[in-house]
Amino acid sequence: MTPRPSPTVELNYRPVALPARPQRRIAFAPEANAILQFSPSEACVSLPLDKPVTLGRGEARGADTKLDLNDFGALQHGVSRQHCQLKRVGQQLIIVDLGSANGTFINGDFLKPDEERPLAHGDMIVLGALTVHVFFSK
User: Fold this and answer.
1) CA gap 134, 84 in Å, rounded
2) In this predicted model, what pLDDT tens digit does every residue of 6-49 receive, in sequence order?
3) Is-contact 79 58, C-beta < 8 A?
4) Residue 125 neighbours by CB distance under 10 Å
5) How many domains does the chain divide into?
6) How far apart are CA 38 and CA 70, in angstroms?
7) What is the pTM of this model?
8) How far is the C-alpha of 134 from the C-alpha of 131, rounded, in Å?
């Protein structure tokens, strides 16, 4: 004889609605710096972004401004030499993937090569497998 399955228990409460997602703050004031916080080290780098900055492995070539991510395990995390670029456009911080081998993700969404997308305070970007949180200084 097979045992009878237990009946589903009816709960005496209503589900609680989740709070609305906070509004993304994309206004990037002219005097603000972009603060990049790398995980898991939690090390931070402050960028004034008076001109575009390329994130990747190795040193800058020519007149380019580059942030070398080798100190954050860039090679092991699949970061390309010229992975992406951060630039100020008006009052927005824009990220552009430069055709990286392992991709750029913003809050889990894939960024297509050469696509420009604004970043918001608190966004998480992943370069290959290197996690970076972006904050705006006040």
Assistant:
1) 14
2) 665 555 655 565 555 566 778 888 999 999 999 989 999 999 99
3) no
4) 22
5) 1
6) 12
7) 0.81
8) 10
Structure-token match 């705006």, residue found? 136
Q: Which is nearest to 127 in space by CA: 73, 61, 46, 87?
A: 73
**Judging by DSSP bridges, how do beta strands 92-97 and 84-89 pair with one another?**
antiparallel
Burial of 128 (0-12, 13-18, 19+ CB in 10 A): buried
Alpha-helical runs (H) found in 77-132: none
Residue 7 lies in a domain: no
Measured between alpha carbons, how far is residue 111 from residues 17, 40, 53, 95, 116 in Å?
31, 22, 17, 9, 8
Domain containing 92 — which CATH number?
Answer: 2.60.200.20
Q: What is the 3-state secondary structure (H, E, C) of 6-56?
A: CCCCCCCCCCCCCCCCCCCCCCCCCCCCEEEEEECCCCEEEECCCCCEEEE
Beta bridge partners of 132: 38, 125
Would you say how long the chain is, in residues? 138
Q: Is residue 3 part of a domain?
A: no
